[in-house]
Design goal:
This protein is mainly α. It has eight helices and two strands. The protein has a two-stranded antiparallel sheet. Helix 4 crosses helix 8. The N and C termini lie far apart (48 Å). The relative contact order is 0.12.
């Protein structure tokens, strides 16, 4: 199997994405970032960042409101599938596109930083922050993911660790991860979200 290095150093018999090493990759990345900064002034960047953030927040509110009003029943799509599979795809479309573009250009270190870093940020910062904000606002929101949600979370972390722990990647790892995602999506489609299938009480 022919593999590719996530960073810079690879073993023998493995094709590296950056033959010059991770130092050259970092220099190229800094030059790309510098080029972007020179083309877009600071205040223009802040304005567009704020405008895009507000737009995404409004669209997310519309999507959530549509789901709450019964979009899952009208479209015959389970609520668990909409909230756990479709919403993350739509909400993280920009990050997904950036990761694909950098991977196509051979910048695997940036790709892994975007993909894994985004998941870590949501799991360790965004979700607990939402729970704290909901508590301050008097809303009922907890970190209880039920058994299936917790097992899905732990299994996803384990699969990613297995895929990246050696610092090398090849097509077989990608196929395994994609198949695991499809299996997880299918499970969210056929299994209830409230945990009744696992003998749990509905909150």
């Amino acid at each position: 199997l022919r593999g590719e290095s996530f960073g810079g150093g690879g073993g023998s018999g493995v094709d590296e994405l950056d033959p010059a090493g991770s130092g050259q990759d970092a220099m190229d990345s800094e030059s790309d970032i510098a080029g972007v900064q020179s083309e877009l002034p600071l205040w223009d960047g802040i304005f567009w960042l704020a405008a895009i953030t507000v737009t995404v927040a409004v669209l997310s509110e519309i999507i959530v409101e549509g789901i709450e009003k019964g979009a899952s029943h009208q479209l015959h799509i389970p609520t668990s599938f909409l909230s756990a599979i479709l919403l993350p795809i739509v909400g993280n479309a920009a990050e997904h596109a950036s990761a694909i573009i950098f991977a196509y250009r051979g910048r695997m270190s940036l790709t892994m930083g975007i993909a894994v870093g985004s998941s870590v940020q949501v799991a360790t910062f965004v979700l607990p922050l939402c729970v704290l904000l909901a508590w301050a606002m008097g809303q009922g929101l907890s970190l209880d993911l039920h058994r299936f949600g917790s097992l899905s979370f732990i299994g996803s972390v384990f699969l990613v660790w297995v895929a990246v722990q050696d610092g090398q990647g090849h097509w077989l790892k990608g196929v395994v991860l994609v198949l695991a995602y499809f299996v997880l999506s299918l499970a969210y489609w056929v299994l209830p979200w409230d945990g009744k299938a696992f003998g749990e009480e509905t909150p």
